[in-house]
Structures are given as structure tokens and as C-alpha cells.
Specification:
This protein is an alpha/beta fold. The protein has helices at about 15-30, 45-50, 55-65, 75-80, 90-100, 125, 165-180, 195-205, 220-230, 240-255, 295-305, 310-325, 340-355, and strands at about 1-10, 35-40, 70-75, 105-110, 130-135, 145-150, 155, 185-190, 215-220, 235-240, 265, 275. The chain is built from 13 helices and twelve strands. The longest helix has 19 residues, at about 15-30. It binds 3-isopropylmalic acid (IPM) and magnesium ion.
Length: about 350
């Protein structure tokens, strides 16, 4: 198959981890005879420094004509600590999501048996946990009108959802749930207080009868935050609005042992984007110590979701599992003193794929 991908390393550890994922991508393509072409583009703080904006038109054009986008991370402390900054790296990520129409962010929470002891939760709670968070990505409070009044002393952010936006994300989540073993969909909202949540619940209740094989349950977001810790094994597919999803997926990511392990796929109208859910981890940038596995696993999702190449995705996943079993892992999950470098993990995974 011809595969034409855009590579957006971004900021912080982005370039290092994307480089490792590219090693895995190339190894799989070589093995399976796929014709890979790829082009790099800038985004985030480095794009602000270079051209004054975090998601330049040239980067967008490249994404639009590519079959898939592999993304690292964006963000830089020099902006985090300056609330008055006019242009921020994160705006680039939001603009990319909006302009590519990426309304659904799929974040699988997977459990890695060899990392069970790293989880802050008890082993019996975590064992066998596997669920999918479907996060709405182009609406809600992230994109509503925001600003200041009263000379700056009052600030507001508006949460807006249209029926069309809610329907399309719920449709994706319901359809996803029809394909899982347990066929259970948890719709997470705050319908006891928030009007947009009431619209979500109303639309979900209308749609549920169209998916008779799916068991639909509703859960308030505060309760969901608790259930994720108390009974993570009860979730199968969870769907929620943008900001709730942002928060709950960070919470969920540590169930498996490390934030450095969670991949994601953002899908929607145009080219899909594959990225780890962790951020740019600036403290580790350039040190060759960051965990590349979330990005490598994002590449696995890219094969599956953008190219429908299931076997290729599984090859990467098998290699990642093998690296965990062999203890070839970075310091966040390594046992005392035996940490491998970012690049060593990348080489090991690519080598495993080549020899498989
Ligand atoms: C994420 C990140 C982003 C978000 C930030 C970097 C804008 O936290 O992808 O979860 O809030 O969506
Ligand atoms: Mg987040």
C-alpha cells in the first residue's frame, strides 16, 4: 500500500519520541512492503519562534494532502508562565483539530500486565482493565466565546454544543460499542447542572434505541471520576464532551501504570492525527530519557485507523509488549537503575519488528 504521512514532531520531547515511532513505522513498512513517503512540518512553540504562528498554513496544507498525521507534542514553559502571551502553542493544536475537523479523540486505556505494579491502584482493581474513552474534540468550552470584561477583572468561557456536534460523536461512540465484546456505552455528563450536558443526554436517549445490542448507561462526571478509581474494570466505552474527556483521560492514563504509555487517534472530517496523550515534558527535552511507547503505540493506531492495516498495528503492539517484558524501557517505568534511553527503546522495538 502507498502511505503518505505528515510528521509533526512539535516541541519538548516531541522530536525524540516521534523519531522512535518513525523507526517502528519504517520497520513495519519494510517488512510488509508498504511504500512509505513522509514529510516533516513545524507546529507549536517552535513554529511560533520560526514563523509567528503555532499552526502555519503550510503545515495545514501538508496535513490535508497526507493520508495520516503523526504528531508528537506541543507546549513550552515560556508560554505556560506567561498568562498574557498573545499567541500560545496550544492554540496550534486546537486550530489543527478544528481545521482538520477532528471531532473525535479515541483514547484507549490499556492494561499492560508487566506494569501492574506501577499503577497507583491495587492490582485486583487494575488487572484486565481495557476500555476506550471517546472524547469530543472540537466543541464545548475549548472553542466557545471567551474573554474579559470589567477592565479585565471578569473572565468568561462559554460552553456551546449543537445537536449536530453531539449526534456525530455519539454515533461514533455507539457504533464503536456495537463492536466490543461487552457492548456497553457510558455517557458521561453533568446533566444535573449544565445545559449542554442536558442536550447530550437528550440526544443519547433518542439514539440509544437504534443500537439495541448496546447497553447504554449515564453517569455524572464527578461520579465517573470516582468510578474510574474504584471500579475501572466496569468501563467498556466511555463518551464525553471535550473538557471532561481531557480531565478523565489523564486520570485514566495512570491506571495502566504510566502516562507515558497512552496513545490516541483523532478522527473526523479530514486527515486523522495520531498522537500520545502526554504533553511536551520540557524538563526531559533533548535528554533521551522520555518514554517513546505512547507515540509508538499511536503509530500502531495509525496503521489500524488510517490504513485499515490491523496486522501491522498488531506487529507494533507485540513489539511494545516484548520490550516491556524484556525490561527495555525508559526511567519512568524501569526497575531500579536499569533504564534504557529513549533511542534505545526505539531501536529495540524497530529491531524486534524487523526480526519478527
Ligand atoms: C490533550 C492536551 C491538550 C488538551 C492541550 C495541550 C491543549 O491536554 O490533548 O489532552 O487540553 O486538549
Ligand atoms: Mg489533556
Amino acid at each position: 500500500m502507498k502511505m503518505n504521512i505528515a510528521v509533526l514532531p512539535g516541541d519538548g520531547i516531541g522530536p525524540e519520541i516521534v523519531e522512535q515511532a518513525m523507526k517502528a513505522v519504517k520497520a513495519v513498512c519494510a517488512k510488509k512492503g508498504h511504500e512509505l513517503t513522509y514529510e516533516y512540518a513545524i507546529t507549536g512553540a517552535c513554529a511560533i519562534d520560526e514563523v509567528g504562528e503555532p499552526y502555519p498554513q503550510a503545515t495545514h496544507d501538508l496535513c490535508m494532502k497526507s493520508d495520516a498525521v503523526l504528531f508528537g507534542a506541543i507546549g513550552d514553559p515560556k508560554f505556560d508562565n506567561n498568562p498574557k502571551a498573545k499567541v500560545r502553542p496550544e492554540q496550534g493544536l486546537l486550530k489543527m483539530r478544528k481545521d482538520l475537523g477532528l471531532y473525535a479523540n479515541l483514547r484507549p486505556v490499556i492494561n499492560f500486565p508487566s506494569l501492574l505494579h506501577k499503577s497507583p491502584l491495587r492490582r485486583d482493581l487494575v488487572e484486565g482493565v481495557e476500555f476506550m474513552c471517546v472524547r469530543e474534540l472540537t466543541g464545548g468550552i475549548y472553542f466557545g466565546e471567551k474573554g474579559r470584561k470589567d477592565g479585565g477583572d471578569t473572565a468568561f468561557d462559554t460552553c456551546v454544543y449543537t445537536r449536530v456536534e453531539v449526534e456525530r460523536i455519539l454515533k461514533l461512540a455507539f457504533e464503536f460499542a456495537t463492536k466490543t465484546e461487552r457492548k456497553k456505552l457510558t455517557v458521561v455528563d453533568k446533566a444535573n447542572v449544565v445545559e449542554t450536558s442536558r442536550l447530550w443526554r437528550e440526544v443519547a436517549q433518542e439514539m440509544a434505541p437504534n443500537y439495541p445490542t448496546v447497553e447504554t448507561e449515564f453517569m455524572f462526571v464527578d461520579n465517573a471520576a470516582m468510578q474510574l478509581i474504584q471500579r475501572p474494570g466496569n468501563f467498556d466505552v466511555m463518551v464525553t464532551e471535550n473538557m471532561f474527556g481531557d480531565i478523565l483521560t489523564d486520570e485514566a492514563s495512570v491506571i495502566g501504570g504510566s502516562l507515558g504509555m497512552l496513545p490516541s487517534a483523532s478522527v473526523g472530517v479530514h486527515t486523522s492525527v495520531f498522537e500520545p496523550i502526554h504533553g511536551s515534558y520540557p524538563q526531559a527535552a533533548g535528554k533521551d530519557i522520555a518514554n517513546p511507547l505512547a507515540t509508538i503505540l499511536s503509530a500502531a493506531m495509525m496503521f489500524e485507523y488510517a490504513f485499515d492495516l490491523k496486522e501491522e498495528g498488531q506487529m507494533i503492539r507485540d513489539a511494545v509488549n516484548a520490550s516491556l517484558d524484556a525490561g527495555v524501557v525508559t526511567e519512568d517505568i524501569a526497575e531500579d537503575g536499569k533504564a534504557a534511553k529513549t533511542s534505545e527503546v526505539g531501536d529495540w522495538v524497530a529491531d524486534f519488528i524487523a526480526k519478527a
